Amino acid sequence: MNQLDKFFNPKTIAVIGASNTPNSVGHSVFKNLVGNGFVLYPINNDNKVTSVIDIPAYQSVIDVPGEIDLAVIATPAFTVPAIVEQCGIKGIGAVIIISAGFKEIGKEGEELERQILTTIKKYNMRIIGPNCLGILVPHLKLNASFSRENVLPGSIAFISQSGALGTAVLDWSIKQCVGFSHFISIGTMLDVTYHDLIDYLEQDPHTKSIIIYMESLRESKKFLKAARAFTQHKPIIILKVGRSEEGAKAAKSHTGSITGNDDIFQAAFKKAGILRVDTLNAFFNLAQGLNTQLRPTGNRLCIVSNAGGPAVISTDTLIKSGGIIAPLSEGTMNRLNAILPRPWSHGNPIDILGDATDKRFRESIEVCIDESQADAILVILTPQDMTDATAIAKELIKIDKKGKMVLAVWMWWDQVQEGKDILNQAQIPTYSTPEDAIDYFMQMHTYSNSLSIFEESPIHLPSDWTIHTDKNIQILAKVVKEKRSVLTEAEAKEFLSNYGIPMAKSGIAHSEQEAGEISSKIGFPVVMKILSPDIIHKTDVGGVILNVCDETEAKKAYLQIMQNVEKLKANIHGVFIEHQVFKKYEILIGCKKDPIFGPAIVFGMWGTSVEIYKDTNIALPPLDMLSTKKLIEGTKIATLLKGYRGMAGVNMEELQNVLYRFSALVMDFPEIAEFDINPFAMDQYWGVVLDAKIILDENQK
């Protein structure tokens, strides 16, 4: 038996803090459980309380004569560690802590959590919470929360770090006739976290999708593994907050946890096949659509409307979102001509005119359902004087959809509410604006697309690729011995070269004479750079001289560079001299170590312009050749790299090889905090690293 079964399918439940005081949390939780077939034990340490809602009370769980599957704690935070200890002694394996006042308030709360963690490890217990609303399992009539709402049973599991948002979702779900398989408020996730719940819900026959409100995340690798397994069969949708610096601070103060870099979260979600939304409105819209469990097979949409304006808005929104207006076959056009008035739009969107009856709507929709080039149908109704929104809704629910997604937009509110209610009860996703409906359609298309990516076979590198991990270990050992965190450019390039990433010819000069000799040996022109772990931005201090064309210039350049940096009092390792390479394309390849997800690989436009144009894409390693291709294609510069308007592109296979090797390198050396190749120069033949920077993680050196 899965240990989480005690939470979601308990037979006996104890509520610690159960009370007869109206409007108290303990009273609300216990009242919600009464009369639903569970054996209940109210626990209240006041010896004057002999019963709660006419059920005999006990002063401690230890006093209860029978076994207890689930305990719900609703007492002040300072009392909780001792209560958890009593639960452990009693042999209770599942505990929900509703109480607040733990790590979100600082060190005092953190100490309480430390005590609880010690206890649950001692007794092999699991905890949901603290600082949560509780849980609901509607098909079992289990409401172990202080929510007053009676939730409809359904196929969506909702997981939330915010109890208040959870309450709002429950209220909305009842009005929209959306049901849940599970409602789980997890609070600050002291123990049970997302990956535990996703793994559990994957095996649950009642759960067909998961929606999550997320503020913070821990155990990211387990989360991604669980999510990727789930999304190969069922969708996960996440509203992740803390995108801005201010939002991240607010989220941290709410949950007491780090929120992480938002761009890296986005890359992680994409890798796991997770759909992300940015607003509560989109969150609710997707939840409503998921209730039907239908997904489009493509992005071609057929629009049927009784008004031209909303049809045009729909078209613009669809095209902007990457969708396609479905072409209509000759057979479809002939059938529509036969049933519609002559002034109809004679194309898609299909404007069936403002006087459209329920019969005209039904017949037009049936024709569109038969159109093989349409992946879904969007039906838009605006309330004209002659429009009967209720009758049209009744006709729509009778139509045989033949497995095709049908979305409805019943515009405006009071005038069409009865029709919307009919559609919602029939599990037809119904929206108030075309934008909301198309957002849902495109999100579901994105999810379907992600499933096809999972099924693609990864392309691997040839087996003759050679790496020299031992040499890189020696480089890092030298850096650490010298108590440095920054590798010199020469060290960084050697580090890359040991993993087969191409470099230009180079050398290090320690004198004016050596500068001339090394430059001549390399071959002109050369570029000369100061070599120092203390000087990261070499150009800013006059530490770089380009286009050095003979031995005399090389000697002068050496003296000039040394003079420019003399006043900095930096640790100078010499002047790095390198053959100056000219390539058509210059690219950024980098890595940043995220505190939650670990290394994240960045690819995009090179140089200082990367900070202005932000044309970059991020992926989490390890990368195979397929994921390197997706990483490249996720940037605007990819259009140029493939060749544009007669201009030659780059050797794309070689670029993918470099990204693959770079991915392997950063995976092998978790000591690296930041790693920049900026730029990597390339043409249609080959590429070369022009500059490289490696900064080590102070905590892992």
UniProtKB/TrEMBL annotation:
Question: SUPFAM superfamilies, from UniProt?
Answer: Glutathione synthetase ATP-binding domain-like, NAD(P)-binding Rossmann-fold domains, Succinyl-CoA synthetase domains
Q: Give GO MF terms, alphabetically.
A: ATP binding; ligase activity; metal ion binding
Task: Pinpoint the ATP-grasp domain residues.
Answer: 493-529
Q: Which domain of life is it from?
A: Bacteria
Q: Which InterPro entries match?
A: Acyl-CoA_Synth/Transferase, ATP-grasp, ATP_grasp_subdomain_1, CoA-bd, NAD(P)-bd_dom_sf, Succ_CoA_lig_flav_dom, Succinyl-CoA_synth-like
Name any one Pfam family assigned in the record. Answer: CoA_binding_2
UniProt keyword Disulfide bond present? no
Q: Which UniProt keywords apply?
A: ATP-binding, Ligase, Nucleotide-binding
- Where would you find the membrane-spanning parts of this chain? none
- In its keyword annotation, does this UniProt entry include Chloroplast? no
Gene3D superfamilies the record matches:
ATP-grasp fold, A domain (3.30.1490.20), ATP-grasp fold, B domain (3.30.470.20), NAD(P)-binding Rossmann-like Domain (3.40.50.720), Succinyl-CoA synthetase domains (3.40.50.261)
From which residue to which does any coiled coil extend?
A: none
Query: To which protein family does this belong?
Result: In the N-terminal section; belongs to the acetate CoA ligase alpha subunit family.
User: Mind telling me which PANTHER family this protein's record contains?
Assistant: 3-HYDROXYPROPIONATE--COA LIGASE [ADP-FORMING], ACETATE--COA LIGASE [ADP-FORMING]
Protein's name in the database: ATP-grasp domain-containing protein
Q: Which organism is it from?
A: uncultured bacterium
